[in-house]
Specification:
The protein has 11 helices and no strands. It folds into 2 domains: 66 residues, no CATH class; 146 residues, Serine Threonine Protein Phosphatase 5, Tetratricopeptide repeat, CATH 1.25.40. By secondary structure, it is mostly helical. The model has no long low-confidence stretch (mean pLDDT 88).
């Protein structure tokens, strides 16, 4: 069978935003949202996830799965390095959406998919990026692992992010140092380390030093966001 053709003017970011909007609409009980989502299968508004919404958007565009949509967009990039970069960006962006729903209570299969997605994004950055992209990929793995209740894995990759910053200080921004401190402190709290409070205070000091006000606000939001594991 011939794969569905996506219009040239359609971008994956637009479809991803449609999925986010649909998820919020179903969760909020907006008129017609659940009925629209039900075209792709049974709907429980309380548990309607970003993956569920993406499946609906995929079906509306003639695809069986969201991964088929991603592959269709990827086929537009003929050069290997460009393809690695494209997949790295898209996998990372998609993870940002998934983190809305991830927790230790998430179904084990979904936890694994999210963690493997973080590893895949980091792999593609290793092929197409430099030390700075590698480091941020390590942050994403750590963040995902902590979200699903795997503190040892989170601590390992948080430490690797910090190590890359120490080895290549000129490649990273001030906010990288703040995020590395944040995720390191969060991993310490998750593993029950007595240093967690001290490390969190250090993360706050580094956040306060981020020069750009808008970026500093984003980093502060990350630092303020739970859980801090007691």
């Amino acid at each position: 069978m011939t794969a569905p053709a996506l219009p040239d003017h359609v971008e994956l970011a637009h479809l991803r935003n449609l999925a986010k909007e649909l998820r919020l609409a179903v969760r909020a009980g907006r008129p017609g949202a659940a009925e629209r989502a039900a075209a792709a299968g049974p709907v429980d508004p309380a548990d309607f996830s970003i993956r569920d919404a993406q499946r609906v958007i995929a079906r509306e565009h003639g695809f069986e799965r969201w991964s088929d949509v991603v592959s269709a967009f990827g086929s537009r990039r003929p050069h290997a390095r460009d393809l690695h970069r494209w997949f790295a960006v898209e996998l990372n962006n998609a993870l940002g959406d998934l983190l809305f729903d991830l927790s230790p209570a998430t179904a084990p299969a979904e936890q694994e998919r999210a963690l493997y997605q973080a590893y895949a994004a980091c792999y593609h950055w290793l092929e197409a990026g430099a030390e700075v992209q590698h480091g941020r990929g390590e942050y994403t793995i750590a963040q995902t692992a902590l979200a699903i209740g795997r503190p040892a894995t989170g601590a390992q990759h948080a430490a690797r992010y910090a190590e890359l910053i120490d080895r290549h200080p000129g490649a990273f921004a001030d906010w990288d140092r703040a995020l590395a401190a944040e995720v390191g402190a969060r991993a310490a709290a998750a593993t029950g380390s007595p240093d967690a409070a001290r490390l969190r205070a250090r993360a706050q000091r580094l956040t306060d030093r981020v020069a750009d006000p808008e970026t500093r606000a984003v980093v502060q939001d990350r630092l303020d966001r739970g859980p801090w594991f007691g």
